[in-house]
Amino acid sequence: MNQRPFTVVLIVPTGIGAAIGGCAGDALPVARAIAQIADTLITHPNVLNGAQLYWPIPNALYVEGYALDKFAAGCWGLQPVHQNRIGLILDAGIEPELQLRQLQAADAVRATLGLNVTDCVLTDRPLQVELRMSESGASWGTIGNPDSLLRAAEKLITQAKVEAIAVVARFPDDQGSLALENYRRGTGVDPLAGAEAVISHLIVRTFQIPCAHAPALLPLPLDPHLSPRSAAEEIGYTFLPCVLAGLSKAPQLVSRETEARDGDREKKHDRLPITNYQLPITKDRVDAVVIPTTACGGSAILNLSGRSSVQIIAVNDNKTQMQASPEKLGIAALQVNSYLEAIGVLVAMRAGISPASLGANISPLRYLSDSTKQGLVPQ
């Protein structure tokens, strides 16, 4: 008997100091494990990006954070692809030698992985990224010249007909700072992550195209006390390879508006029409969401938690700087201690077994309203 595909969303918000997923791709093992259970795993770059390191997961969809929010709200669907044409944007503020490192990384994935990276654009002005830290402890940032970024993206879309965009922006070198030292020890908040999200959100929101970002930084001096969780970012000159690998098969983002425009193929840059493909994946397909217990305040989780058919699984061990628990937000969630326990819940769900039936104590069935059945004995 055929069953509907089992779809899981894995979220580890960026820039909030998650104990698992707060460093360089250290939630990737969780994604790999969950992908063995799910028919489709939907997750985002913060989970899958590991700088020089990445792992091909055939049934995982690489969805940027703003696009994931729009998907969860029911505004956008996710259209799987075989391969995207990827355009590369380099910040004019990157030094020439560091620019060359990024271009060589792009050439390496073209030659070694066979990815379709087609064109590169240099922004007409330096982007001027600045880093910030909120009172809650989350990282964020600003872009001094966002219009320059959008002009570069539009050029790639209209002239090169790219279907996904990778951005490399020059980030401030923060050597010697306490935040960087804590991050390299595997205990602090990633000081870059919040600003990276601002960059990709801007392009995805404006052009409805997959996008991800890799920062350009000068190499750090060797640290004999480096945490294994942070080590992926210190084994090369660029963080670009994982971004290009993710974008190569990132799903296209479709909505009713974009479907209506598909009659004019030029306006859609030959990315669809979807009538020649399988139907897009929509929020109605989601069966479960796995999220850190204290990070349930994001738009995606709030929208998906409103569906009775979606099981929210909150993982206690993945501590963050946030305090947005399911109880505080009125979200019905099954709280588990670890990702190993969450995986057990998913196995039960896929098998059609209620997780509650696997415990030692099962409460008796009750009437929906005791007042209507008072004094009556079931027949």
Domain unit count: 1
Q: Report low-confidence residues grouped into runs of 5 or more.
A: 263-277, 375-379
Helix-and-strand structural type: alpha/beta
The helix/strand order is EHEHEHEEHEEEHEHHEHEHEHEHEHH
Strand order of the largest sheet: 3-2-1-12-13-14
Strand portion: 15-25%
Alpha-carbon distance between the termini? 34 Å
Q: How is the main sheet built?
A: 6 strands, parallel
Average pLDDT, rounded to a whole number, is: 88
What is the number of helical segments per DSSP (H or I, 4+ residues)?
13
Query: Level of helix content?
Result: 25-40%
Shape: globular
Radius of gyration: 22 Å
Structure commentary:
- The protein is of the alpha/beta class.
- It has one domain (7-276).
- Helix content is 30%, strand content 17%.
- The protein is built from 13 helices and 14 strands.
- It has helices at 28-35, 45-48, 65-72, 96-112, 146-159, 178-184, 193-207, 240-248, 256-260, 299-304, 326-329, 339-350, 370-373; strands spanning 7-10, 40-43, 60-62, 77-79, 86-90, 117-122, 129-133, 139-143, 164-170, 211-216, 252-254, 286-292, 311-315, 334-336.
- Strands 3-2-1-12-13-14 form a 6-stranded parallel β-sheet. Strands 6-5-9-10 form a 4-stranded parallel β-sheet, with helices on both faces. A two-stranded antiparallel sheet has the order 4-11.
- Helix 10 links the parallel strand 12 (286-292) and strand 13.
- The radius of gyration is 22 Å and the shape is globular.
- The model is unreliable at 263-277 and 375-379 (pLDDT under 50).
